[in-house]
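in:
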């Protein structure tokens, strides 16, 4: 089933894998100082369309957002006790400048997944070590091939989580956990 997100871009309906936004407590910290130690600098998004990791939707024109540096594997490792070593990386993500309430409870869509998009699925084990990745060009099929790629990623029982990234800018989009 294909649905449409708030920007009018088709989104893939989720199967058994639910995308995770950045946790509210982490967002509170990022809105003060990001994972690179830089202060948060909010601005008004005049055009809209920025992929927001706090609520897993695209921004609307006029919303106050910020571009911050985020280290998703580092944050997961702190929760799980893993040590990702050299696989710990940080990169830019867009978030609302103020608390937004997160994604809707009834919104299981895989955000930022639409026909023609290039995505990388990176698999990590429970130690935080990368187990490989896959480049995926989403098709016009109802789910773009995304759910099948996730099933393949989680087929290995050693996979603890999968990060979805945009190829164009390398941005972290969202995480899925076993």
């Amino acid at each position: 089933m294909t649905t449409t997100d708030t920007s009018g871009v088709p989104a893939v309906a989720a199967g058994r894998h639910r995308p995770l936004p950045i946790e509210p407590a982490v967002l509170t910290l990022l809105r003060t100082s990001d994972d690179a130690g830089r202060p948060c600098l909010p601005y008004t998004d005049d055009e809209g369309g920025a992929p927001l990791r706090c609520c897993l939707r695209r921004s609307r024109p006029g919303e106050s957002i910020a571009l911050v540096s985020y280290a998703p594997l580092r944050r997961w490792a702190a929760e799980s006790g893993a040590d990702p070593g050299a696989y710990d990386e940080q990169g830019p993500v867009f978030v609302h400048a103020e608390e937004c309430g997160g994604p809707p409870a009834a919104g299981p869509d895989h955000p930022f997944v639409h026909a023609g998009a290039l995505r990388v699925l990176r698999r990590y084990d429970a130690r935080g070590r990368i187990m490989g990745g896959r480049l995926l060009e989403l098709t016009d099929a109802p789910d773009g091939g995304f759910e099948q790629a996730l099933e393949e990623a989680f087929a290995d029982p050693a996979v603890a989580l999968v990060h979805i990234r945009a190829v164009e800018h390398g941005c972290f989009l969202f995480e899925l956990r076993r």
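note: The longest strand covers residues 63-70.
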